[in-house]
Amino acid sequence: MNKKLKIAVVHPFFRAKEGASLVMAKIADHFHADVYCIEYNKEKTFESLKKNKVTVIPTLSFPSSRFFDGIKAGFSFYTYKLPEEYDAIIASTSPSEWIRNRNSPVIWYCHSPNKEVYSHYEKRMKRKNIVSKIFYFTAANIFRLLENTVINKIEYIFANSNLTKQRIKIYLNRDSEILYPVFTKGLFRNISYQKYFFYPSRIAPDKRFEYAIEAFKQFKKKGKEKVKDWKLIIAGSLESQYTDYYKKLVEMIKDRDDIEIKLNVPQPELVKLYGNAFCILFTPIEEDFGMVPLEGFESEKPCIAVNEGGPKETIEDGKDGFLVNSSIEMADKMFYLISHPSIAIKMGKNGKKKLRQKFSEEHFYKRIEEVVEELKEKRNIKQ
């Protein structure tokens, strides 16, 4: 690492332990970067951030919700001026890229163009009543207008997956370079293969836990003697805006002692849950990338995931896991693996081997450093 580089990391919220925040926390840690965000809860997010200088950007006063959080974050990033001392600013989850309005140079490590106004816009519009549709239409168009004022100014864009690269081209008409998220090897480990399936992720509707729960229920109907001792464990952080969704999941599993939801588990417990699981489940809606399969591979566990989005890039069907198209198909693969434990173990080992070969921590940081150096050199030439 070039210790002379001065980098700022800009990310909307460090208030829970989730994938995008983890990647940015690792970048901040590696480059000893200053961190700028809208909200920072140092007790609920990643321990490593305590070593960085974290600045919380002032925001407008709005009610707390997914929509209003986006508005106040966008306005703050769009109007905020950072010190001139940085060689590069690395932005992350949308709308942190709006920091480019008053600052440069900016590298956008894009997890996805804003789904609310691009890839998921039509789906969400259909669910709303006429008043909500008018409000949503207006807000989405304002967002797109402001996005267009900054997107062509951004000096370099990394995409976290091929799916994200495609979305950036379709919705924003910008080219980008695929750079798979950093994965720190050695954090997770294989301990044993106990009789439970494990789905760890932030408790939110986009993670579609009901799919995994339904698959497990179907699984428990197969060969009843063989499956009677098996469990499903779900673990993830919960934010107040998703309390209703959490209640829905609790209702789905009431009166069952074979499905458990653990909230806000500390890192050592998460490592143990991965390490003792038999297999990992992953069922989000069009996930842009998804760190869960990689953490499973590091723990030498196979992963059964939905055949869409990021898992199609990280899981090789039949070799280190399975890609499925329905909860019934997922249940079939779950039953297949418990009936052939040696295959499950082999798949887990294949996943760990691939992790070592394809997802290089060294390449990730080196490529970011190269781009920062290029931008620094261009700035020096202009000066």
The CATH H-level homologous superfamily of the largest domain: Glycogen Phosphorylase B
Please, what is the average pLDDT?
A: 91
Calculate Rg over CA atoms: 21 Å
Tally of structural domains: 2
- Residue share in helix: 40-55%
Helix-strand topology string? EEHEEEHEEHHEHEEHHEHEHEHEHEHHH
Strand content: 15-25%
CATH 2nd-level architecture of the largest domain: 3-Layer(aba) Sandwich
Q: Do you know the CATH topology of the largest domain? A: Rossmann fold
What is this entry, summarized?
This protein is α/β, with parallel strands linked by helices and 383 residues long.
Characterization of this structure:
With 383 residues, the protein is an alpha/beta fold. The protein has two domains: 7-183 and 360-382, Glycogen Phosphorylase B (Rossmann fold); 196-358, Glycogen Phosphorylase B (Rossmann fold), CATH 3.40.50. 43% of the residues lie in helices and 15% in strands. The chain contains 14 helices and 15 strands. It has helices at residues 19-31, 66-79, 121-126, 130-151, 162-172, 209-219, 224-227, 243-252, 267-276, 292-298, 311-314, 327-339, 341-358, 361-382, and strands at residues 7-10, 13-14, 34-37, 39-40, 54-56, 88-91, 106-110, 156-159, 177-178, 196-200, 231-236, 259-263, 279-282, 303-306, 321-324. The strands form three sheets. Strands 5-3-1-6-7-8-9 form a seven-stranded parallel sheet. Helix 8 (243-252) links the parallel strand 11 and strand 12 (259-263). Helix 10 (292-298) crosses helix 13 (341-358). The longest helix is centred in the middle third of the chain and has 22 residues, at 130-151. The protein is globular and about 75 Å long.
